[in-house]
């Protein structure tokens, strides 16, 4: 579904849990530009990780 | 008419009922609250609060007994049960006064007496019919017993009697190794009694992760509490000096008292629920995740709804139903997101899935666990407590279960439930700082380990 | 050569240094760790751990003294200081053994002796020069005193001496009402001493929210600890029986001991830092948020870097620098996200901004606060503790500060820091469940109140 208007900050907030919001912020991803793939339009971690990020490199997972 | 007709009519003023009444009043609704006993219900008067007061007295006793280990010269001389009861009553009465004031200040009409559902939206109390645009059923639960096992309140007792005992029994058999049974076992042992727990299931607190059950049983054994798990009860006979408990197979145990703690049943009989056509199952009232029963405008909250029987679940149900009635759009919290604490010495706390449940849900390859031993945690060493933090996570996914054992770990479940309910990943938690030296550092260390960055742990 | 050349050469094995060494080794780097005293540094040997052991002994003493209030018959007979020290040493030694084993198991080369920076990437110990591709400075801090106030280790002492006292002083003046001063004041009072705190600033623990300072001062007063805030110290004279402390204005206080707790200075003098051209300010080493000094390949962590002097900040610095060196991209946590706990009776804990700082940052209209009194919290009533949870939030924005006072609230800061660091809003937290009856429910209630849904609180 296409969205003409970006979401309001309050709406975005409800659609993403705090750690996902924090991750988006750390990666410089604007949640209002994302379309949530979770139930009820919830923005998931995968949505954020899949979005173009100005701070490209994700912290690697190290063993 | 104004006195008998309400926007919301609540039957039962326990955790679920009073929370619903308070929130509904806050949202501007006119509320009637029917209670036959005291505002606050089981939790405040014969449940959470008095048991936790006993458990704290037990902690004080243990602390005095072991003071020498910390360089404190003190002697433990015994338990003054009337003193313990006075302390317990003091706590209950203070909170009761607070609650009573709160209910009054919000303008809630309290209707004293036993109510019965006499119409789809009508509750009759002492011959007077009260009506509500919405009706909320919140009649709670009672201590069950086993067929043929009669509670006499003297030798064979339930938690309700146990809370009012005026002396410390020399020996007790606790029938049932669930939360309530284990909590009383813990108290009585600290108070000096010989305690044996008899449980038919293969482990104590069987709803918890197997690791937690094993750790509690081990800690109990060290404290001198005998756990007879996997041992069905057969019968009990009252004698002149106490009670003789026969196990399946014929073995007998003698004790001064038998505490029957085999679970709590819903208090729903003879209240008109069936007559009004409310859908029920094995005595419980069926409700959806917004508390709605099958009857339009009739809701159910708390222990009468199948699921975890916990006060904070009752509060949450009550708030949710009030908001639902007021036309808001509240978010339900599923039972798995509800924190569970057993306030024994040591405590057991958890939220989310056990390892077994996670494997069942996602498959063994998709589940990862990490156990951080409190031996590496400075504050736990200072408290001289043992235990662990166990995390259950989806591989490359969120933490789906947190399980803790150790003195005072019940307080760590606040953080644990945020991680669970906010679907945190190890990588989200790992970079954050936990204050040193606290027990909550152990949660931090466990997430570091899960993220492959163990600090104060081998691995 | 292999023995003197490392990927990472760490100078100082306190919280910052050893955490860096452990994480670097975990990431596959060859690590040299120089230490002139014992692995673990201030925190383990003369800081966090032994003080918290004392504070726990103090709690045991208070609990025995007040046992009667809970119905437990016990008598408190005094403090056996050698016993307290044995307990304290037991805890320290156990953790020390664990740490030593950990460092060994990760294959870190420990270089015993005092090191000096003799080249941009070179540290010389006992005449041998060691080099590192990266060098990490982690030399920690020491107890400062005031000009003209000489520490004799007998009558005029620092925390280090205070930890080894073999008796309980009859009376003490504590110079400095910061965290360390307040913690010793709390211990000694529980152990039976007369305690006076002298502090030039207008309040105790001045870095905390004003409400927390006021609550601690009030609780201390009730316990018989005198706080002379806003009272500059003038001089101290040792006498035959003790020490006479003169305040500005001329008033004097006599006591058996004077504890000087006026802060800790960076241990950076005469270590070659200036000679090698490291940028410093008032003795501290300047580093960016990734621990980098102005010299390529030279990093600084822990108490030598300006900011909060806390062990867990040191751990976090150390881990971050190790990851930075290993080429990862770690996320720094700003100082405001670091939880702070004062382990007094009652405890004070916080994370994020004070109300004053929030108003300064966002303007008074944009800041909202809620204070939830522990009087409404069942578990706090059971513990008989008083205090509060105070939330500072941006209006329609995240919670930007959490402040707690009360016995055992230090453990709640784990949840509080998640809320702060994940930028939770009141309505993210409000629908979630806190276990009943816990103290962490008070955090839940405060967020309910902030979201306009107070349950167990008037409002
Ligand atoms: C020993 C013990 C310890 C416990 N410890 C904990 C704990 O630590 N933590 C925890 O979360 N939970 C604990 N619980 C469980 C907790 O008490 C319950 O989950 C909680 O009280 C359920 O709330 P409720 O509102 O559903 O029912 P209740 O609290 O049982 O309230 C029901 C109310 O309805 C009233 N009522 C019933 N029928 C009628 C009628 N016909 N007319 C008028 N009024 C009526 C009753 O008098 C009662 O006041 C404990 C329980 C027990 C027994
Ligand atoms: C009484 C007291 C109580 C405290 N309580 C707490 C608390 O509860 N919680 C908390 O978070 N923080 C607490 N702190 C602060 C905490 O101890 C410090 O923040 C922490 O230890 C700093 O770590 P660091 O690695 O920077 O330095 P340090 O721990 O001081 O370690 C520096 C190490 O470097 C070594 N060293 C120095 N110079 C050289 C040299 N030239 N060659 C070789 N080795 C050298 C030292 O021997 C030492 O081992 C407390 C401090 C004190 C004094």
Brief overview:
The complex is a heterotrimer, with one copy of chain A (63 residues) and two copies of chain B (459 residues). Chain A is mainly alpha-helical.
Describe the structure.
The complex is a heterotrimer, with 1 copy of chain A (about 60 residues) and 2 copies of chain B (about 450 residues). Chain A is mainly alpha-helical and about 60 residues long. Chain A has 3 helices and no strands. Chain A is globular. Chain B is of the alpha/beta class. Chain B folds into 3 domains: about 210 residues, FAD/NAD(P)-binding domain, CATH 3.50.50.60; about 110 residues, 3-Layer(bba) Sandwich (FAD/NAD(P)-binding domain); about 100 residues, FAD/NAD-linked reductase, C-terminal dimerisation domain (Enolase-like, domain 1). In chain B, the strands form 6 sheets. In chain B, strands 1, 2, 4, 5, 6, 7 and 20 form a 7-stranded mixed sheet that branches. In chain B, strand 6 and strand 7 form a beta hairpin. In chain B, helix 3 runs parallel beside helix 6. The longest helix of chain B is centred in the first third of the chain and has 25 residues. The model of chain B has no long low-confidence stretch (mean pLDDT about 95). The interface between A and B is small, with 11 and 10 residues. The structure holds flavin-adenine dinucleotide (2 copies).
Which short descriptors sum up this protein?
heterotrimer; A: 63 residues; mainly alpha; 35% helix; B: 459 residues; alpha/beta; FAD/NAD(P)-binding domain; Enolase-like, domain 1; 7-stranded mixed beta sheet; 5-stranded parallel beta sheet; globular; binds flavin-adenine dinucleotide; redox-active center (chains B, C); EC 1.8.1.4 (chains B, C); Dihydrolipoyl dehydrogenase (chains B, C)
Mean pLDDT of chain A: 75
CATH architecture of the largest domain in chain B: 3-Layer(bba) Sandwich
Summarize the helix and strand pattern of chain A as letters.
HHH
- Uncertain parts of chain B: none
Give the overall average pLDDT of chain B: 96
Number of contiguous helices of chain A: 3
- The N- to C-terminal Cα distance of chain B equals 71 Å
- Sheet-strand content of chain B, in percent, reads 25-35%
Small molecules in complex = flavin-adenine dinucleotide
By CATH, the topology of the largest domain in chain B is FAD/NAD(P)-binding domain
Question: In terms of structural class, how would the helical and strand content of chain B be classed?
Answer: alpha/beta
Residues in helix, % of chain A = 25-40%
Relative helix content of chain B = 25-40%
* Low-confidence spans of chain A: 56-63
Enzyme class (chains B, C): oxidoreductase
Organism (chains B, C): Nocardioides fonticola
InterPro entries (chains B, C): Class-I_Pyr_Nuc-Dis_Oxidored, FAD/NAD-bd_sf, FAD/NAD-binding_dom, FAD/NAD-linked_Rdtase_dimer_sf, Lipoamide_DH, Pyr_nuc-diS_OxRdtase, Pyr_nucl-diS_OxRdtase_dimer, Pyr_OxRdtase_I_AS
Subcellular location (chains B, C): Cytoplasm
């Amino acid at each position: 579904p296409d969205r003409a208007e970006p979401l309001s900050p309050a709406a975005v907030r409800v659609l993403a849990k705090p750690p996902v919001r924090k991750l988006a912020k750390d990666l410089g991803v604007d949640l209002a530009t994302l379309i949530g793939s979770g139930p009820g339009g919830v923005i998931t971690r995968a949505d954020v990780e899949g979005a173009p990020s100005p701070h490209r490199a994700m912290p690697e997972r190290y063993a | 008419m104004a006195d008998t007709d309400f926007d919301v009519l609540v039957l039962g003023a326990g955790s679920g009922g009073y929370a619903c009444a308070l929130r509904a009043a806050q949202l501007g609704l006119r509320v009637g609250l029917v209670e036959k006993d005291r505002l606050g219900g089981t939790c405040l008067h014969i449940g959470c609060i008095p048991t936790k007061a006993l458990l704290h007295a037990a902690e004080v006793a243990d602390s005095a007994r072991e003071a020498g280990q910390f360089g404190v010269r003190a002697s433990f001389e015994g338990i003054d049960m009337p003193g313990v009861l006075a302390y317990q009553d003091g706590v209950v009465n203070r909170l009761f006064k607070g609650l009573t004031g709160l209910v009054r200040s919000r303008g809630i009409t309290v209707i004293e007496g036993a109510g019965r559902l006499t119409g789809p939206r009508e509750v009759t109390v002492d011959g007077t019919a009260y009506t509500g645009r919405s009706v909320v059923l919140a009649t709670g639960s009672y201590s069950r017993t086993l067929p043929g096992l009669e509670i006499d309140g003297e030798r064979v007792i339930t938690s309700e009697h146990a809370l009012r005992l005026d002396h410390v029994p020399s020996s007790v058999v606790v029938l049932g190794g669930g939360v309530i049974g284990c909590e009383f076992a813990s108290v009585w042992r600290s108070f000096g009694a010989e305690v044996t727990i008899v449980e038919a299931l293969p482990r104590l607190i069987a709803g918890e992760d197997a690791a937690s059950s094993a750790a509690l049983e081990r800690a109990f054994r060290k404290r001198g509490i005998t756990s007879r798990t996997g041992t069905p009860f057969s019968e009990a006979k009252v004698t002149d000096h106490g009670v003789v408990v026969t196990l399946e197979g014929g073995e007998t145990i003698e004790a001064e008292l038998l505490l029957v703690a085999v679970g709590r049943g819903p208090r729903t009989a003879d209240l008109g629920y069936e007559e009004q056509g409310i859908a029920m199952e094995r005595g419980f009232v069926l409700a959806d995740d917004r508390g709605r029963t099958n009857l339009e405008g009739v809701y159910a909250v708390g222990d009468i709804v199948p699921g975890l029987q916990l006060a904070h679940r009752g509060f949450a149900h009550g708030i949710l139903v009030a908001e639902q009635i007021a036309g808001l759009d509240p978010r339900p919290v599923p039972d798995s997101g509800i924190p569970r604490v057993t306030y024994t010495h040591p405590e057991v706390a958890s939220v989310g899935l056990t390892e077994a449940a996670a494997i069942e849900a996602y498959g063994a390859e998709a589940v990862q666990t990490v156990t951080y031993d409190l031996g590496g945690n400075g504050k736990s060493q200072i408290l001289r407590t043992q235990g662990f933090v166990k995390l259950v996570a989806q591989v490359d996914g969120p933490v789906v279960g947190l399980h803790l054992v150790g003195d005072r770990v019940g307080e760590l479940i606040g953080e644990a439930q945020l991680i669970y309910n906010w679907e945190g990943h190890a990588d989200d938690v790992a970079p954050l700082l936990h204050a040193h030296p606290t027990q909550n550092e152990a949660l931090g260390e466990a997430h570091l380990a899960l993220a492959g960055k163990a600090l104060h742990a081998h691995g």
